[in-house]
Amino acid sequence: MKILGISGSLRRNSYNRRLLQAADAMLGEAASVHIFDLAKLPFYDADLDGDAKPAPVRELLQAIASADGILFATPEYNYSVPGVLKNAIDWASRPAYTSVMRGKPSAIVSASPSTLGGVRAQVHLRDILSATLTPVFPSPDFLLASAHKAFDESGGLVDAASADFLQKYLQGYVAWAGAQAAGAQGGQR
Question: Across the chain, how many H-helices and E-strands are there?
Fold first, then answer.
């Protein structure tokens, strides 16, 4: 399974990018996570949203279209998702109701230095994705609190319970996404 990883943080060594890298390592042969860098995307501008979209936007749309699912990793900025993540979704969700995001199985994880782990950003991201007809893995949230202490030097999770929960979350997501794809191929969506 080919999963597109989208981090809501532009920082090269962000906690959420590291979380996507840890997810890729945990999935092994079951799936791979390709991380898309949002840094090149221009701000959404309807004047640019025609047949000749900017190259970084075309790259994002192609990456989403060719993926079997999307794994969002979002920090929490001011109780919500970062603007860069919302901007990417705004580009990818056009045309409304028929975009490359429609029906694309997604999952949300978050890492934050706070003790809440990004829970409010996840709630907002679920609302945003519902508007794009992007199904979200129905599971308890994976929230990595105190992310500044959560990773070892090699990028693995320090806490065994967090690593175990992430592993189970990812296995559940891959199975669910596979079932979503099978249902779509069978015309059951």
Answer: 5, 5
150 closest CA partner among 137, 167, 163: 163
Regions of the chain short of the pLDDT cut 70: 186-189
Contact 106, 33 (CB under 8 A): no
Coil, helix or strand at residue 142: strand
Say what the pTM is.
0.95
Find out whether 100 and 64 touch, Cβ atoms under 8 Å.
yes
Is the distance from CB of 128 to CB of 101 less than 8 angstroms? Answer: no
Of the options 3.20.20.20, 3.40.50.360, 2.30.40.10, 3.40.109.10, the CATH number for the domain spanning 2-185: 3.40.50.360
